[in-house]
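Sequence only, no structure available. Ideas?
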Amino acid sequence: MSSAIAIVGAGPRGVGILERLGASAPGLGPDGLDVHLVDPYPPGPGRIWRHEQSPLLAMNSMAADVTMFTDDTVVCEGPIVPGPSFWEWAQALRTSGDPDSLGPELAAELRGVTAQTFPTRRLQSAYLSWVLREVIAGLPPGMRAHLHRTRAVDLIEEGDLQVVRLENGDTLRVDAVVLASGHLDATPTDEERALAARAADAGLTYLPPEQTTDSDLSVVPAGETVLVRGLGLAFVDLVVLLFEGRGGRFEPDGDELRYVPSGAEPRLVAGSPRGMPYHCKPHYGLRAGRPPLPRFFGPAAVDPLITSGGPVEMHAQAWPLMAKEIAWGWYHELFVGHPGRVRLPWPEFAARFARLDWGSPAMAELIAAAVPDPVDRIDLTALDHPLHGVRAPDIATLQPLVRERIAEDLRQHVDPAHTPHLGAFVAMLSVYGEVTRLSGSGVLSARSRAEGLPRWQSFFNAVASGPPGFRVRELLALARAGYVTFLGEGMWVDVDGTGGTFRAGSASVPDAPPVAARVLVDARLPDPSVVRTGDPLIAALLARGAVSEEVLRDADGALLRATGLIRVRASDGALVDAAGMTHPRRFAVGPHTTVKVAGAFTRPGMNAQSLRYNDAVARAVLRSLPGARAAAA
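Reply:
I predicted one. Tokens follow.
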């Protein structure tokens, strides 16, 4: 019996599901299987990684740290089907392939790539396109893939069939559907609409949250002071496009860079809740090898929390173990990789560390005695809030204080003397997977889901999702030249109706006069929202109650927040409707769902959560099909 599946979204997540379907289809699937990938953007790279974007934009991962394929570290139910990482693909293409097939610019870049290079997004686009072709070519007999360069606009049922209506007028009748659309656009929030209305009344320019690569930056005039709210990756993209993208350039200046302006650039005044850019990506490898993980926040600790029935309070019950696990990764790398900088052998320190509670006086005493240099001790508070307590009388006085912290963070992330940062990073990836299991179990208190999980996600992003070092050097050059001014932590913005400007200040300069500007950019992605989505398929499903948004209420029924996320069953991504029923043949995976998975692609050799979850979803989809071998058994 032949069956069919539709995957809505043909970017890395959709391709990852296709790869896992192909791996497990011989054991689970029906005799014939057609898989339809639907996406208006190029299949493989999808919207975010499409070739048609500025050649200046780079990944924030090194070439050796990107793969779409399982390896022998991945613990999953389906077969392991190894494939090349980005770095292995690049090596093979330039030694035994045809780099010139990529075009002259990408061919030149490919020939210069090393394992530690941060490739352009255009070259990543070429890798992801190749991955899709390789996955399709490797599908088992009887399994076929079909690509549809259009948008899915509706999904209804006819009996047991799922009917997907496409924007080009075609209709797909399939047995199961996977929604893998990635970040969903959303209409502005009430607060953003109100801000936009006040700005329009005052004749100001406001750019709301969106993908920076899709923003119309021509509305930002040369020489204008521009307020920027947000210092994450969208901010980094904004800086690239407004400075180097407008003809400016960077030249070596001793150990630093010097910015040479084009005359077309604005002047940015930027802030955020933290007031600092994300921490720089590590530029080195582990000296001690991968830490033995999980150690304190693995199944042995998380399973009892899950089976307790809850409610589990994340800050009180989970965070001490999470923090201890992150510190374990840091100190394993320090003691084993840099034994000359510690006063105890690793086995002794590890045994004592294991017996103590994180945050206890005894733990602090152990670390202080064993690690003489404070820079070698992990400080989670400083990592999360690097400007905490920093105050200045005015913005000019604040600038060297912020720049010094950015420069020191850069130094520690490029100098191999500080590889413990990478040990902590690896531990955070392990913790992330266990937090996903815990949050999907239903035992976390509503307040923990409303407040604890967002705080953890924000901390993870700041520590683990930062820019490469060369971008930080460029940012420092712009700051020294006066083209980027940091406003500090706790940024606030309003509209001065009398003066006809935006005004901004921060907790770092509480007594300074506000900065006035006629342009404001919210440099971040829109907050997820099912009810405000611009996706026609999701909107249609929501209107019929076929999807539902996660709404969190306290124990007394008081509304805490709507997360904006599509509710799915944690184990396999099955859609949960407005009545709380799980659909047997509709699934969703990605950042728009209640299951948070760290990235659509991942580092090799890390038992990656994204690969494990793709496998679980794909096998659930196969088992849902008529004629599936598991069903027959």
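The chain has a mean pLDDT of 95.
Hope that gets you unstuck.
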